[in-house]
Amino acid sequence: SSDTTPLLNGSSQDRMFETMAVEIEQLLGKLTGINDKMAEYTNSAGVPSLNAALMHTLQRHRDILQDYTHEFHKTKANFLAIRERENLLGSVRKDIESYKSGSGVNNRRTELFLKEHEHLRNSDRLIEETISIAMATKENMTSQRGMLKSIQSKMNTLANRFPAVNSLIQRINLRKRRDSFILGGVIGICTILLLLYAFH
Question: Of 168, 161, 172, nearest to 48 (Cα)?
Fold first, then answer.
């Protein structure tokens, strides 16, 4: 290939990073959608007022999503900066001009190969570190997605239980009122009987 070809272009690590970056962006989009659905659920008119613990949990998940998004963009920007720097360092034209005054073609080629080999080693090391960070971020986001799904199911369960609780409370109040009427009637009848007995 040409001596001016950048060191990282077309490498398997570079393609792997691009694939993982797209996948992480998709996961971030899904996580954002789940957070939006949770917020819409808490703001809907048919849902009773939630307690402070659930609101705190919702805010906590929003903060975690913001942290993951910031960390992903930071990692991606660092990788792009490293790749750009490696491309600049891997430009061989400057090396060719500097080695024109060298002692021979063989020595020049050997030194060029050694320098390119060192560049490749440094690039592989940096890419492996970046990929490990991206994989850890992906695992954290996957676990976070499972937690959000479980919380959403619990919130739906609570929402379904509230109408049943309200109907049970209404039945209890009706029975209390009926018992009060019955007790008042019995006391009234007993009082009338006592008065009749006292006057006769």
Answer: 161
